[in-house]
Every structure is written in C-alpha cells, then in structure tokens.
Write a structure and sequence with these properties.
It is built from 13 helices and 8 strands. The protein is α/β, with parallel strands linked by helices. Strands 3-2-1-4-5 form a 5-stranded parallel β-sheet, sandwiched between helices. A 3-stranded parallel β-sheet has the order 6-7-8, with helices on one face.
Length: 399
C-alpha cells in the first residue's frame, strides 16, 4: 500500500525546498512522510557525520511544518539513482530538489533527477525553490499514452487536494515540408483540426469522472514547453499563476463596485439620508424603485418601466439583487453570477433612461457593465477575496 511520500535530501537549499513541498503535500493528502539521505562515502571526508546532520535537519524541518503526520527518516548507502528508484517502488511519489550538493553530487547538473524521473515506478516531483504562492492551477502535459494517463491521475489528485483547477495541455509536431509545397496547405489544416479535436475528446472522460473539478484544456503546435512561454513553468502538481499588479486592480474594482451595490441597498433600506431620506426608507414603507421608475415616464420606454413603479415584487427583486450582487462582489464568491445579474440590472436601468441627454448611447451604466464583464473574465474573486477557497474552486457556480 503506497501510503507515504519519499523525499530525498542532501543538505542543499533545493533539497530543503523539496522537504517543505513534500511536508505540505503529506499534510494536505493525509500521507506519511519518509525522508532519506543516500550517503556516498568519501575517504577522509567525514561524510557520514555530514549526512546524518543533514538528515536530522530535514526531519526537524518537516515536523515543524506538519501536524499529525508520521515523519520517518533513514540514512542509506549505495548508488544514489538505484536507491531512489527502489524507494519509489513503495511510495506514493518521490520528491527531489532540482539541484544538489553533498551526497547527491550528480544533481549539480540535474543528472540524478533526470535519471530517477526516467526510471522511477511512480510520480517524481522536482522542486526548484521554496514558494510562498498559493497554488491554484495544476498544469498537465497529456497525449493519451499510458505514462500520461498516470500523470493525469496524479495531477487530478493534486488538484482535488489543493482545491485547484486542472489545465490540460496537448501538443503535436507538424510534419516538415518544403516551403514550396503549397498543395499540402489544406492537408495540414485538416490534420491540425483533427489533432485538436482528438485532444479535446481525450480530456472528456476525465471531466466526466471528476465533475467536482474545473478541468480546462489547450491544444498547441510544437513542443509542449511552448505552453509555458510568458507564464511560469509549472511542473504537474506544483503550479500556480502568481498575482500580477493587474489582478489587484481588478480586485479593487470588484470590491468598489460591490460597495456601490451594497451601499445602495443599505441606504434605500434604512434611509440614511444620502440618496434616500428616512421617511422614504424601505423599512418605513417606502418603495425603493418608485421614484426612479416614475421619472422615466417621458422617455422612450417610459410606458413600460413606469407601469412597474410601486409593485412589491419589483421592489423585492431589485433590493435582493442589490444585496446579493454587492455581497458577492465584495467577498469574491459567485463573482460570475453577480457580474451577470449586475450587468442585466444596469442595462435595464440604462434602457429606462433612453434617449440619453449627454451622449448618444454611452453612460455610467454601460461602463459599469463592461467592468463587470471584465471581472468575470479575469476571475477577479481569487485576489483579495474568497474565490480561491477549495469549496469555491470545486463548484463552478460559486466562482
């Protein structure tokens, strides 16, 4: 039974980062953690003492970062690659630093990591450096082969444990043709369409089996690493998009517009005297929609909107919308639904005021609507909001 994660250490900084990653993963997935140091003996070097101290420091660090996780450590000897491959046979996964010193001398060039990844029985995670970023996306290279099926299964498990999205990248190479082979153009285009369709179809069963997860896909021509150009390189199980300045701009816009909706609800409900005097407050029997709707009587659609004035169901629908949209935008939960409902409300208010006095068609209602659409497309609830909570990530309607 593979109920533990193995992490190889050697006292280097990348190995420490690997211990931290493995400890977090063990805590998150309810697995035990086994830390090993393959100590190579060098004459007159005192290597055994160094290895023992490195192993003890790694175990101490893992225990500091976890609670209720069984952390075991063992000093091993032998060929580094063979020992680590053997360790992988009984492990859920094997975690290594990208480069190493000391016992893992080969990791200075990454040769140990590459050799182990090519021969290990299960998943191998290569950790480059410590990261304080919250991981909200797992990227998987997938072509439908047996090995990629195993990678997909591991990545899906990681995504579920992290409450993250899964992004499946498929790539294929175009045949090398003479630049003068114009006649092949239609054949190449057909091949591209076929490959893209086949790649999407391969992902469909995974979506059906994991309906609680958000699984997106992307098809690329050329090497699969092209999918990471201009974005972080994300090995499966370790990925996230770091927060950018524009993410905070969208987040502040989301909260600001949310406050506009929420304040309108509060002022109309309690009559705090900003736009609604106390004697016209909703709780005092006033109608929060009558003033606006009656004021549209001479407009193009005034007959329709004026007929809605004073109706209780209109008041309740309007006020519920203000409260729900405001809270959702401020909290960052249900941002997409709130953006859709807010856009509908604003467009109706814009239509009620046609024709406009100061512009042929553009006013603040349309501008706010455009911003709301942008908030939904930018997934703005995950920055300065609760949109990255696991329950939100697992339920698309809460995003």
């Amino acid at each position: 039974m593979v109920d533990h994660i193995v992490v190889g250490v050697d006292g280097s900084a990348p190995a420490t980062a690997a211990v931290e990653w493995a400890a977090a993963d063990a805590q998150r997935r309810g697995l035990a953690l086994r830390i090993v140091h393959v100590c190579q003996q060098w004459p007159h070097s005192g290597s055994t003492e160094y290895c023992a101290k490195s192993l003890e420091a790694a175990a101490t660090r893992a225990r500091e970062l976890t609670r209720d996780v069984d952390v075991a450590s063992e000093l091993l000897s032998g060929d580094v690659i063979n020992v680590l491959v053997a360790e992988s046979e009984l492990a859920d996964s094997l975690v290594l630093g990208s480069r190493g010193l000391g016992g893992f001398a080969g990791l200075v060039l990454g040769s140990v990591g590459m050799a182990v990844a090519g021969h290990a029985t299960g998943p191998v995670v290569i950790v480059w450096a410590p990261s304080a970023l919250r991981h909200d996306r797992v990227v998987i290279g997938y072509d439908g082969s047996a090995h990629s099926e195993a990678a997909m299964a591991y990545a899906i498990e990681q995504a579920r444990a992290r409450g993250a999205q899964s992004h499946v990248v498929s790539a294929w190479q175009l045949p090398v043709l003479s630049p003068y082979a114009v006649a092949y153009g239609s054949l190449i285009e057909e091949r591209m369409r076929h490959e893209a369709h086949a790649a999407r179809e391969r992902v469909t069963p995974w979506r059906e089996k994991n309906s609680d997860l958000v699984i997106t896909d992307e098809q690329r021509k050329g090497a699969i690493m092209a999918a990471t150009i201009n974005r972080p390189v994300i090995p499966a199980g370790t990925g996230t998009q770091p927060r950018r300045p524009v993410d905070y701009v969208w987040a502040i816009a989301r909260i600001s517009i949310g406050w506009i909706f929420l304040w309108a609800f509060l002022d109309k409900t309690f009559g705090w005297g900003f736009a609604t005097p106390a004697n016209r407050a909703w709780i005092s029997g006033g109608s929060p929609t009558t003033g606006f709707l009656k004021g549209t009587g001479e407009n193009a659609l005034g007959g329709f909107f004026g007929s809605l004035a004073g109706q209780a169901w209109v008041d309740w629908l309007f006020m519920t919308g203000l409260l729900g949209i405001g809270l959702a935008l401020i909290l960052g939960i249900g941002t997409r639904i709130a953006a859709g409902a807010g856009t509908l409300m604003l467009v109706l208010m814009w239509a009620a005021e046609l024709p406009l006095d100061t512009n042929p068609f553009m006013d603040d209602h349309i501008v706010y609507s455009i911003v709301l659409v942008g908030l939904a497309l930018a997934n703005a609830g995950t920055t300065l909001g609760l949109g990255d909570l696991p329950i939100v990530q697992r339920n698309a309607w809460l995003k």
